[in-house]
């Protein structure tokens, strides 16, 4: 054991650096290879000719192959709808659980928490029946609605509201605020970091969500990017590697760029949202 | 204030209760419609036969479950999902820990390392599957090109029963490890550096320090990650749609994918409902176990 402790620090540091870099390169390799393939002609990409000339034609081919702009707008509308609904519902419910003593609160809260495990993904078949019965089949609202009363969001807002000092609320009351005023002037501003964190996690989740949108959509008018991409790149569609790479990069670009720019905020957000 | 008449206070309490219910009800209604109602719907459906154009559904008791248990595909898929969980969970957690230990040190290019580890988390699983498809393609895929350099024969990673599930597992581990790393990284940053120095002075090796000091301190984080990883081992199936479609010969089929296939390709709703109920039962047991741990935090005030 002492032998290991006596390893020269410089050597361990070099080994650590080497190991970390090898792992990082392996981890980034799929994306790096796609980026490389996307800017080479299909034959060069398949033939893995590293010195082949660059081209942007794959992006043009991919762009023309499918109504991407429509899909982008659909995804954008979807994440905005979901987020707006989640903010509204989770704020109200979180406020109720944090500040109002009502009979059955504990029990209801447990029921809410149970939804953390009753995953919407597992219930696709039955939610499909329910959403269809409500006339929500193939609508953006239909994709978003099952996620709006998020147990996770309610829990998160409840925790955030509970940490607001009672003095702040009392001060607002002395100035004549009612419950609505207290929520709007005191609790919501105090929970801003939680809202930001929740927003980032929610947008990332729903931009990337696939299974439920696949089930509940049936037309280009509502289909989000992930479903569009899966149809475009399905192996039986016979589209080649270079064009699929270009399409894949286009769809992941908004989120990955946002992540690279706001890396710190994203990681903080995942952490804040993760500590339940 | 102390002179408030009794009936005033009870009036206040009733108003608070009313407001509380009113504020919570929009969320509770939606939760009921899209979580509890469908769960009940699944249970109900699973007790009936499949309706055809000639014969309406009739009550079948537990027949749908019996059919499932008699179906070798069911056991195959359950087995696959158990292997998937048993490999993906420890592998992604272990890699996440190693990543976090490295990302927490002052290594050269630390910003790049962190980004590289984390970026897969930001990709949709469908896009990730596209990227990996090129790796797995026989002959021209990157993996075969690399192994080919050493004279290995090309392998149809996704097309043969022996390797398909493992190919799917690799993508999941790749996708999850960076996400879990973030939680370890945050936990590591709360551990005072003095501990490390004290351990070094005591003559503890790195392995001892890791085993005796770090791992116990990281235990709450590990438990949190474990719950997430367990849920993901049910949920994370999008890549099957691109990579294998559960094949060949069900070799890589996982439960949730099978539910989708049963309901939307074979249109066998009762069988899908029975499957849904079984998965919910497992998740429910997990929830009960987790709530025992959560209990403390719910009552902390």
Word description of this protein:
The complex is a heterodimer of chains A (276) and B (301). Chain A contains 16 helices and no strands. Chain A is mainly alpha-helical. Chain B is mostly helical and 301 residues long. In chain B, 41% of the residues are buried.
- Gyration radius from CA atoms of chain A, angstroms: 24 Å
Strand element count of chain B? 0
- Characterize the main sheet of chain A: none
Q: State the separation between the terminal residues of chain B, measured CA to CA.
A: 24 Å
Q: Whole-Å distance between the termini of chain A?
A: 38 Å
Shape designation of chain A: globular
Q: How many individual helices of chain B?
A: 13
What letter string, H or E per element, gives the SSE order of chain A? HHHHHHHHHHHHHHHH
Helix content of chain A: over 70%
Shape of chain B: flat
Order of SSEs of chain B: HHHHHHHHHHHHH
Helix content of chain B: over 70%
Percentage of residues in strands of chain B: under 5%
- Rg from Cα of chain B: 25 Å
Structural class determined from secondary elements of chain B: mainly alpha
- Please state the average pLDDT score of chain A: 86
